[in-house]
Design a protein that fits this description.
With about 350 residues, the protein is of the alpha+beta class. It is about 30% helix and about 25% strand. The strands form 5 sheets. Strands 12, 13, 16, 17, 18 and 19 form a 6-stranded antiparallel β-sheet that branches. It has a 4-stranded parallel β-sheet with strand order 2-1-6-7, sandwiched between helices.
């Protein structure tokens, strides 16, 4: 299988979920490439090209960290490949993590992904679904209200203040387009800079004002779904509790959260049961759900992570399970050609 992973940039990539999956693909002897969102090339009447980076066959990185070190060194090789010769393009770049001055990069992966998908390459997640769910916090709001905290999306200060009063002077404010817990505020009656915070955050764009869930003090749960089901291997599930650091209400690993184990509760099962039909219909192969008790607080369809922390709580990294699923999809595509759409294939077991 010939697979290429799309990341923000190879230079800025960290040893996270993407590198872990890539390492598993190399272990399984697949032809593996990685590219930044600036490495596409287009010319009229020609297939899209990709300026890719890869590990030479003479090297066999033993760990994901070693793989990343090779890719970011002079030991890595580069090659221009023709996109339609790929079996799989795995879009893993996160637009919300782009640095200032790289506005052009935010939608490039999805935009070129759509074109490559139309050339017959299996694209995961489905590129048209990613276009539709590009602002994943807005996509999240399309889900039934029974599994979500109360919230509003606005840029109007008066609406935010009204929501604040209706929710007993306690709420969470965060930008509609953001990730990693950046610019997320817990607002309560002791907050003296509310007007300043609202002004600052609305200057970035739309804002979500969300009901505060007291259970968040115990952290949140990241549940990784594949094909609309919880990642599972040998009776173990792809679930990790993210415990906030001292004096911190945000549960992001990038904000100092630590990992802990969590069972698959009935409340989680209910949330997954309600969420899965939409994810399957839309062709979203690999998705992260963030859950607090019985409420879904966020959904990540662009670059869900967490696999690199599973070993900390005695879980497998599930990368072999993920690669087996991708290999099956490639085989289905070989057998059926274009009789099965990319969207259907993306979430097919």
């Amino acid at each position: 299988m010939k697979i290429c992973f799309v990341v923000n940039s190879i230079e800025s990539e960290k040893c996270g979920t993407t590198i872990y999956i890539m390492h598993q693909a190399i272990k399984r002897k697949h032809e593996v490439y990685v590219m930044g969102v600036g490495d596409f090339g287009f010319s009229h009447d020609k297939s899209i090209s990709i300026n890719s980076t890869y590990v030479p066959n003479s090297m066999s990185p033993e760990t994901p960290q070693e793989l990343l070190e090779i890719l970011q060194s002079k030991k890595a090789k580069t090659r221009k490949i023709i996109a339609k010769e790929l079996d799989v393009l795995f879009i893993r770049n996160n637009p919300t993590e782009e640095e200032s001055g790289r506005k052009w990069a935010e939608q490039a992966g999805v935009a070129f992904g759509r074109m490559i998908q139309q050339e017959g390459v299996l694209v995961l997640n489905d590129a048209f679904a990613l276009s539709y769910a590009f602002i994943d916090k807005l996509y999240f709001e399309e889900l039934p209200s029974s599994i979500k905290p109360a919230s509003i999306i606005t840029r109007k200060k008066e609406d935010i203040l009204d929501f604040y009063e209706k929710n007993k002077n306690k709420m969470v404010l965060k930008p509609l387009e953001g990730s990693g817990g950046r610019d997320v505020y817990l607002i309560d009656k002791n907050e003296k800079n509310l007007n300043q915070i609202i002004t600052t955050i609305t200057q970035q764009g739309y804002v979500i004002a969300q009901e505060y869930l007291p259970a968040v003090k115990d952290g949140d749960i990241r549940v990784l779904l594949m094909n609309g089901k919880v990642l599972e291997k040998d009776g173990q599930f792809g679930i990790i509790r993210r415990v906030s650091g001292e004096g911190e209400f945000r549960s992001n690993f990038s904000q100092g959260a630590t990992s802990d184990s969590s069972p698959l509760t009935d409340a989680m099962k209910k949330i997954i049961e309600i969420t899965a039909p939409k994810l399957i219909r839309d062709g979203l192969f690999f998705v992260g759900l963030d859950i607090v008790k019985d409420k879904l607080i966020e959904i990540n369809v662009l670059s869900p992570g967490g696999l690199n922390h599973f070993h900390e709580i005695g879980l497998p990294d599930f990368t072999d399970t993920i690669m087996e699923a991708i290999e099956r999809k490639v085989e289905y595509k070989r057998l059926y050609g274009n009789k099965i759409s990319n969207r259907e294939l993306a979430t097919m077991h």
